[in-house]
Amino acid sequence: MELKKLAISEKKRQALVTMGIDSVEALLTHYPFRYEVVEETPLSSWEKDGKVTLEGVIVNRARVVRYAPKRSVTRFQIVCQNKLFEVSLFNRPWISAFQTGKTITLMGKYEGGNRITAASYNFQPLHEQEGIKPVYALKEGITQNDLARYVKKAFQVLPHQENRIPDELIAHYRLISRDQALHEVHAPTSSAMLKQAFRHLKYEEFFLFQLVMQGLRKNDHAHGDKPRKQFEQDEVWELTRTLPFALTKDQKTCIQDILDDLQSSASMYRMVQGDVGSGKTMVAAFAMYACVLAHKQAAFMAPTEILAKQHAENLKRLFQDYEVEVEVLYSALKGKEKQRILERLVHHEIDIIVGTHALFQEDVYFYDLGLVIADEQHRFGVEQRKKLLQKGDKVDFLLMSATPIPRTLAMSLFGDMDVSTIEVLPQGRKAIITKVVKENSMRSILEEVLAHLDQGDQCYIVCPAIEKNEDYAMRNASDLYEALKESIGRVYQIGLLHGKMSSAQKDEVMQAFQRGDYQILVSTTVIEVGVDVKNANLMVIYDANRFGLSQIHQLRGRVGRGDRQGYCWLLSDSKDVDAQARLQILEETCNGFEIARRDLALRGPGDILGTRQSGVPGFILGDIIADSNILEVARKDAGIVLKQMETGAYPALKRYLDTHLREAQCFD
Ligand code: ADP
Ligand code: MG
């Protein structure tokens, strides 16, 4: 139902829309992000320095003491539960409000010795305020009161909310109804009922998500059989001979999983997850080679141009003695050069095309696309899947991710996606020595870094910002680059790399660094994923507290790729104890799974999985770690319900599902 029905002013309505609230239903599912419990603290449970909420009567005239400009303390006495207390209230110097004889409600801290420091006060009777109060997330232009009022109105125009979960399941798990749950969430009657409300809504959230994900998967399968890819597995394994190393056990297992998928009549939908440096690219290469042997084309999608080019070069080298044509395509490529590639692609003169998301633009046509691999991106959501479907009907799909999440969780999250995991790193890989430096400066480590440079190592210096104007508090790459040139530029060659440079410039700098022309590369996170420079064994990260742990782990995965010991220094002058504690984790372990697990526990999934731009759903209520048991149950239930729908059961739910599947698959 349209928001217009609620008679909200145009300005406020616009503000709501920017918050993602564009309908009455959306208003009802804009859940409070926390609750405040207002209740009288019985005198018997008052503790020194504890929080108290109380009602009392003012018994003397208030006095104000001003102890600094704009700083004051107002003092008066109250009687509360037959006892006398001295109240202090900071920076509210309006004496006349606190008249003797008035009943006042106070919230604050008990200081002991009958003294109270009040944080807030009002003159409403306490019993009228008691209860659990919702607190909503806000944006500019909308207040708590606004939201509370709109939600009330919403319930007036939509007085009854139908269940979305099948009734059998509601009965089975003894859930309250959706209607009750929504009312409770916005206006809790008790903490026990609020808990019940969350049980319903979390389960519903997971269940519906699973239904759509599994429905999508089923549709992929339902569109007729995928032609099995025809190749000899032995011939694929022959590729091993050209490698300068032996594949790890896990790499072999992953490749075997994939070869079996390619030869099956069901579309592959698989994720290979493995820590940075675990050798995922090689797994991708084997998969693409199998596809090429089956006379089909493979597309390898990388998140950045630098990475796409690097992949293309490596693949060209790998396949130099084979009849496998590798090309690279990216947005900056224009005119004749691009035209030429597109033509060769559609005429099957290219077997493997590597590229950025440019691979999925409208003007790109394949002769016969058989396999798509997306590297280093969990940003492969419904949108991208839609584009992918446009390129070929029964395409096998492989996702490579270095953001390790527990296997069962990955399966739950991505519906029925299959998961292969590379856990062991190639032999001889040394753990990167990581040190947290408690200032945002290289002062204390500069000597050590320069000594390494003198031995032939190269160093990345990573800053969170490109230029000064973004955020004054952050180090920016441009200024740091200038400063370093000024101080050590006569002795050391220094390069600068950031996302605002043209791709030709970036390329030039990166190649120069790879050649060893620069000892130091000052950069933003554009180097984040996958870039491979063998001599780069050092990394310094400024404002490390501003990055996610997994992101830093990925970043430092750029160093120590050769035989020499890698080092990483994390600079941070954050006074936040938690931020420092988080960085310590990186000192302690180089295991990406462990880091992801601890980061998840500390920050919740939204940040780590990059929910905002990703295909990973942003659950509003459900916490994929804390509520993983609900997620798992919902996954199984959704599978069963989906099956039953085929025989006509749950028509309303079927309509819901169809709408969402259409959204995910329409070719508009
Ligand atoms: P990631 O999993 O982070 O994408 P890469 O595929 O970039 O890792 O591999 C990192 C490095 O390890 C590359 O230089 C690659 O050639 C090398 N490598 C891959 N597999 C093996 C192996 N089995 N033994 C030794 N080195 C390997
Ligand atoms: Mg990689």
Automatic annotation (TrEMBL):
Domain Helicase C-terminal: 445-601
Superkingdom field: Bacteria
Gene3D superfamilies tied to this protein: P-loop containing nucleotide triphosphate hydrolases
Keywords of the record: ATP-binding, DNA damage, DNA recombination, DNA repair, DNA-binding, Helicase, Hydrolase, Isomerase, Nucleotide-binding
Reactions accelerated catalytically: Couples ATP hydrolysis with the unwinding of duplex DNA by translocating in the 3'-5' direction; ATP + H2O = ADP + phosphate + H(+)
Enzyme class: isomerase
InterPro entries listed in its UniProt record: ATP-dep_DNA_helicase_RecG (IPR004609), DEAD/DEAH_box_helicase_dom (IPR011545), Helicase_ATP-bd (IPR014001), Helicase_C-like (IPR001650), NA-bd_OB-fold (IPR012340), P-loop_NTPase (IPR027417), RecG/Mfd (IPR047112), RecG_dom3_C (IPR045562)
Stretches assigned to the Helicase ATP-binding domain: 261-422
Any one GO MF annotation of this record: DNA helicase activity
EC code(s) of this entry: 5.6.2.4
Keyword Kinase tagged: no
The family this protein is said to belong to: Belongs to the helicase family. RecG subfamily.
Function description: Plays a critical role in recombination and DNA repair. Helps process Holliday junction intermediates to mature products by catalyzing branch migration. Has replication fork regression activity, unwinds stalled or blocked replication forks to make a HJ that can be resolved. Has a DNA unwinding activity characteristic of a DNA helicase with 3'-5' polarity.
Protein name per the record: ATP-dependent DNA helicase RecG
